[in-house]
Design a protein that fits this description.
It is built from 25 helices and 15 strands. The mean pLDDT is about 95. About 35% of the residues are buried. A hairpin with a 2-residue loop joins strand 4 and strand 5. The chain is globular and about 90 Å long. Helix 7 packs antiparallel against helix 8 and helix 21 crosses helix 22. The protein is an alpha/beta fold. The strands form four sheets. The protein has a five-stranded parallel sheet, sandwiched between helices. A five-stranded antiparallel sheet has the order 10-9-8-7-11. The chain has a three-stranded mixed sheet with strand order 1-15-14. The chain is about 50% helix and about 15% strand.
Length: about 525
Amino acid sequence: MKVNNIPYHKTGYFSSLMCDYLEEKKELDPFYNRFPNLENFKDQIAEKSKNFPKENRAILAEALDGQYTKIAASEKTKTNISLLKEQNTFTVVTGHQLNLFTGPLYFLYKIISTINLTEELKRTYPEQNFVPIYWMATEDHDFDEINYFNFKGKKLQWNIDASGGVGRLSTEGLDQVYQAFSSDIGGGKNAEDLKALFTNAYLKHTNLTDATRYLANELFSAYGLVIVDGDDKELKRLQIPYVKEDLFKHTAQTKVEATIAKLSAVSTDYKIQVNPREINYFYLVDGVRERIIEKDDLYLVNNTKTTFTKEAILKELDEFPERFSPNVVGRPLFQEIILPNLCYIGGGGELAYWLELKTYFESQNVTFPMLLLRNSALLISKKQGEKLQKLNVSIQDLFLKQNSLVNKKIREISNVDINFTKQKQYLEEQFKELYVLAEQTDKTFLGAVKAQEVKQKKGLQALEDRLLQAQKRKLKDHVVRLTDVQNELFPNKSLQERNHNFSEPYLEFGPSLVTALMAHLRPLDGNFLILEL
């Protein structure tokens, strides 16, 4: 097994905001609490210890006991749930949508990063306990984002009419997806394992929450992963004071908009991920998850006929807190209210919106978690590795844009020198003499000399480009082999982890896939992993 890495900023696939954050640019200091390194966790532990109510621990553990009644938790997971009652226990959290059959490959990387960080923290701070948490986004309503996964270049899609929180959706119709999946997967033990996993998760559970919990538990319960569903009445009860403030004072909108303005002032290259609303909660019942809107002293549920007076919505909140679902601004706060959490692990887009939230957290007296970019990886099979070696493609080369990669390699292997740098330098020297001559005779000719220099340089560049294209045609076989292997590793000219589903590498490597990732994904390393299995 070969292991390599490359800094994130050299991959070309990460935003300027994330690259600046990873480099700890001073201008970003106001937007996060502590940078995620082992030493900084000491102060984060101390702060969270002082700022997390003991009674919340008991409510959390009891809620989790209830959520785990339908699946067989490992002893390690059961122990971790019990440990959450203790004052010296803390969590590391990642979250993800309920994508069909885990969706993109990075689902695994998120959870493994989380598990591995808790283990590293335990070695560093043995007097504390650290529990890895997967937060299921059961209340999301973006069905089109989760209703498919890619397998061998095909999009396997679940086609139903869906509305409301996706976790409550019936799994009806997923037998058709299974048929399409099983017909393409082939034979062998790994294929049978995948088919059994899909069957047991989706065809033997009645809703998407239970199916996803089963799937994640099967993959990671041996490592003590604890799966949390925030769509829980008793957990929601803990957010009641914060919902009230959002309904009547609109603090989130004020604080987050001010932070966005400051973040935008740091760099115009920073893309703003989310914008707060006046009210950052949805009304959630079966089949409905719609925004709550204040209008003319009434609280309306968008796209419905449901309305509340101020008194009525307070009564509804107190009696049915589970019906109030936070949006992308409110959910991070809800998470940190109910969990003794130290760190959130997410992708670049997720961390970008978390960086908008720190002053809002401070206004609510809730400790802002450390923010850690999840591990990213490129998996290379032995066969692909052999191809890259024959083509003499380095890891740095592999991340080049395809046209740049082809041009670079053609220049390297061509028996003709396709680099006119010397000729261009010679041309510049000749024109220096012409500039001197024009200066001494008639300065009005300087413009004409400059125009001729530009024309001559363009001509040389055109000749160089034509020669390079001719060599590409002559070395067509090499170009095809080069582009084919890069397309395999970067499908749709994007990162493998954003396109492939875990089932593809699992089909080839089986359980050793997770074992290898557990061994090599180092969450605090700060580099993009390249793993040749």
